[in-house]
Specification:
Elements lengths: L5 E3 L8 E5 L1 H7 L13 E7 L13 H20 L7 E13 L8 E11 L4 E10 L6 E15 L17 H19 L20 H4 L1 E6 L13 H20 L2 E12 L8 E11 L4 E10 L9 E13 L5 E2 L9 H22 L2 H6 L18
Antiparallel strand pairs: 1-2, 2-3, 3-5, 4-7, 5-6, 6-7, 8-10, 9-12, 10-11, 11-12, 12-13
Helix pairs in contact: 2-5
């Protein structure tokens, strides 16, 4: 077999590479992925060493950093596939991050290996499965840290509002196509469940009391520049997720005043595209606390300041779960949230319902418990859900 070629996955990242594998090799390299047989390259891998600016003060890599790498790998492989046949050229845009499992932490100095593989295509979308391995380059030890499923849609380079058709793939088993079609239909239904929250906003409160929602709520304002965007001039989904994780982390740190880490992302919904030149406001507020976890709702609003014809709009929303850690990496009890208004009490009960539902789901999957040797890392499953066309 010929030696795979190496290419840089992004300009300005000399230690990042994308490994192109033929379909036969991808099955051996990533046995947990069972993608279809395709004539075009079906699997890639990007890798990068984790630096101090990728992590928090305790040395744990930010969840947003890993999410951004996952999205980069998915964008590369889906864009390649969508341009594998003659026709109108396009860029694959992130439409949905459906689910990811964070099985163990990643630290400064470790190498992240992000493997992506196409597992299903519909007429206008591509499903990509991504695995993340961490490698200790001193000992050579590797471990699986993350899993994710992402959906992309091909947008024409000539007309950003035009969604092109996706080249079909050939499945080795008929069951693969049927299972993929079921996943595709399910994520379309789930997207509709979250649109009703689009009008909700976060309002500042003067002199809030400790442990209240107002005390820890935080906002970040960011001007969208060229480095944040795709060839179309729209923000990368990974950039948005990284900023959302940053705000959620600030909320969690203000509430418990300890070292905190991302434990889960229960739902991410991309409601609309964000153009270059927009000013985006990322707002976070705590919605629920259990004994050792905090749920934070994050809202992203875009203000097209260079386009007076368009009003401010809701671009994305998500629920993040954080845990508090001691200096030894053990999970700590968190201060209990004190909801004050009727809306805060309602959101608290909704968050409690999500927490109990996820807890019951974890207890019903012994494989997930076996993959998560806790403590010291919190026993939490990571799930992402976002909007798709």
């Amino acid at each position: 077999m010929a030696r795979p070629g190496l290419i840089h996955s992004a300009p300005g990242l000399p230690d990042t590479c994308a490994l192109l594998q033929p379909p036969a090799a991808s099955a051996a390299a990533a046995p947990s992925m069972s993608g279809p047989d395709v004539e075009t390259p079906s699997a890639i891998q990007i890798c990068r060493i984790m630096r101090p600016d990728d992590a928090n003060v305790a040395g744990n890599v930010h969840g947003g950093t890993i999410l951004k790498m996952i999205e980069e790998a998915g964008a590369i492989i889906s864009t390649r596939h969508c341009n594998s046949q003659n026709g109108e050229r396009c860029v694959a845009a992130l439409a949905r991050v459906e689910r990811t499992d964070f099985l163990s932490p990643m630290c400064i100095g470790e190498v992240a290996h992000v493997s992506a593989e196409i597992t299903y295509t519909s007429k206008h979308s591509v499903e990509v499965q991504v695995n993340v391995m961490s490698e200790n380059i001193l000992t050579g030890a590797k471990k699986l840290t993350n899993k994710a499923t992402l959906w992309y849609v091909p947008l024409s380079l000539k007309n950003v509002d035009k969604v092109l058709e996706v080249p079909p793939v050939v499945y080795s088993r008929q069951e693969q196509e049927e299972e993929g079609r079921k996943r595709y239909e399910a994520q379309k239904l789930e997207r509709m469940e979250t649109k009703w929250r689009n009008g909700d906003i976060v309002q500042p409160v003067l002199n809030p009391e400790p442990n209240t929602v107002s005390y820890s709520q935080s906002s970040l304002i960011h001007l969208v520049g060229p480095s944040d965007c795709t060839l179309h001039g729209f923000v990368h989904g990974g950039v948005t997720m990284k900023l959302m994780d940053e705000v959620a982390g600030i909320v969690a740190a203000r509430h418990c005043k300890t070292n905190i880490v991302t434990a889960s992302v229960d739902a991410i919904n991309f409601h609309d595209k964000i153009r270059k030149g927009c000013v985006i406001t990322i707002s976070g507020r705590m919605t629920f606390t259990s004994n050792k976890s905090m749920e934070i709702e994050v809202l992203v609003d875009a203000d097209p300041v260079v386009d007076s014809s368009q009003k401010r709009y809701r671009a994305a929303s998500a629920f993040f779960t954080y845990v508090s850690l001691s200096q030894e990496g053990r999970s700590l009890p968190v201060p209990q949230l004190v909801p004050e208004t009727e809306d805060e009490k309602k959101r608290f009960e909704e968050g409690k319902g999500r927490y109990l539902q996820m807890k019951a789901k974890r207890q019903g999957h012994p494989w997930q418990r076996a993959q998560c040797p806790f403590p010291p890392w919190p026993k939490t499953q990571f799930t992402l859900r976002a909007g798709v066309v």
